[in-house]
Amino acid sequence: MDRGEKRRVVTALAGHMLERGCGVREVERLVGETYTLVREPAGSPTRDAKEYGTLINACGRYDQPEVGYRVCRGDREESLAQALRLLRGHREYLAKSMDAIAEAGINQMEAIQYFHAADRIRDTVVGIAASMALNREGATKDLPIIAFATAEDGIKVSARTTRDLVARGLDLAAIMQEASRAVGGSGGGHHAAAGATIPPGTEQRFLEIANRMVRAQLGASRPSGDGQNL
């Protein structure tokens, strides 16, 4: 599309969103920056920088980092084909992960919501699954979500939240760091996306600390719903 056509599409989408109650902040997110690698073929996932990153991430998340390395080095034959297969498998796996989350159930505490995937979701993927779950039916948009999965070195914890809660003062990195240290683990990350590794059996204590910290950071009070399955 040319610039005028793109403008008309964005205008129509903005009107559609506003009519259905979306806020100005959500509408503003329709427009952003993209980075095109112009030497890559048109239509290839290696042409758009974001898609390229997703392709390489898929290699690492499924224990094939050398495939991603070879693609980055310029292999557009065998290694790219293998990377594309990994990416397709990654997307299929994420779809199945949503079924695993639905079976496990999303539980709600006063200031957080959480699910425990055990070994039904890979620890390298559970953070992405948590982000997807936060935007699906059954999750509460105004609560951060914490996900647990079994890993070789303990229990992997992934926490995700919205930009709105970060703007209100939520810092998941600080919460993951302090809560994990309190139970003998370690963690950190970013304000909106963070993680930790904790010893098995310490999940409930970890949740109690995280719940208290989120409540303190946001200064908000919600009706108690400990253990409520959504």
What's the topology here?
Blueprint: H1 3-19, H2 24-28, H3 49-61, H4 65-72, H5 78-104, E1 107-108, E2 113-116, H6 126-134, E3 145-151, E4 154-160, H7 163-167, H8 172-182, E5 186-189, E6 193-198, H9 203-218, E7 228-229
Parallel strand pairs: 2-3
Antiparallel strand pairs: 1-2, 1-7, 3-4, 4-6, 5-6
Q: What number is the mean pLDDT? A: 92
* Overall 3D shape: globular
- Tell me the strand order in the biggest sheet: 5-6-4-3-2-1-7
Order of helices and strands: HHHHHEEHEEHHEEHE
Structural class: alpha+beta
* Number of helices in the DSSP assignment: 9
Proportion in helices: 40-55%
Biggest sheet architecture:
7 strands, mixed
DSSP strand content: 5-15%
Gap between N and C termini, in Å?
43 Å
Radius of gyration, in Å, reads 20 Å
- By DSSP, the count of extended strands is 7
Return residue spans where pLDDT drops below 50 for at least 5 consecutive residues.
221-230
What key phrases describe this protein's structure?
single chain; 230 residues; alpha+beta; seven-stranded mixed sheet; 9 helices; globular; disordered C terminus
Structure explained in plain terms:
It is a single chain. The chain has 230 residues and is an alpha+beta fold. Helix content is 48%, strand content 14%. The protein contains nine helices and seven strands. It has helices at residues 3-19, 24-28, 49-61, 65-72, 78-104, 126-134, 163-167, 172-182, 203-218, and strands at residues 107-108, 113-116, 145-151, 154-160, 186-189, 193-198, 228-229. Strands 5-6-4-3-2-1-7 form a seven-stranded mixed β-sheet. The radius of gyration is 20 Å and the shape is globular.
